[in-house]
Amino acid sequence: MSFTANDSLDYLISACAQRCEVVEDGRGAHQFFPIPLLLDDFTQVIIDLYAGTEDHLCDLNQFMKTLIMISDLLLRNTRALGFHIVLDLKNYSLGVIKKLTPAFLKKLQVIIMKAYPVRIKSIHLVNAPAYVDKLVTLVKMVLVPKLTKRV
Fold first, then answer.
1. Which end of the chain is less congested by CB atoms within 10 angstroms, N or C?
2. How many Cβ atoms are within 10 Å of 58's Cβ, its own excluded?
3. Quick one: pLDDT band at residue 122, thresholds 50, 70, 90?
4. Is there a contact between 89 and 129 (Cβ–Cβ < 8 Å)?
5. Closest by alpha carbon to 85, among 17, 14, 33, 24?
6. What predicted TM-score, i.e. pTM, was given to this entire model?
7. Going from the N-terminus, what domains does the chain have, and what CATH number goes with each?
8. C-alpha closest to that of 60 among 13, 101, 18
């Protein structure tokens, strides 16, 4: 059985949504799926979906708070040696992307690199629109070189 990247992600989300706990932010705009099974290299997959359809409902501060809470839970409850992050960019529009300021990206980088002893093995972007290449270039400017190789 073969899947395209989009089909396999939809299959994975529908298959694991019944088995794993979904953590949502206050408005239900961001949904995080920490897959409960560890991979062969003892890493865990976390899927982030933006389910919102209106740009003004996207609150990056709420996203950051939810991310911190999930990181706390994962550090306490998992035995993973690292994480693979899958970001589904299906519902991201330019209105949401405009909210990603360099100050927000720097705060996110400090949290990821210094505040938590979490090893990010890879970051995968799926369902990415054409303008995401420019966004990835912007994000890579604030990340350390070791982490830019993993994006």
1. N
2. 22
3. confident
4. yes
5. 33
6. 0.70
7. 5-148 (3.40.525.10)
8. 101
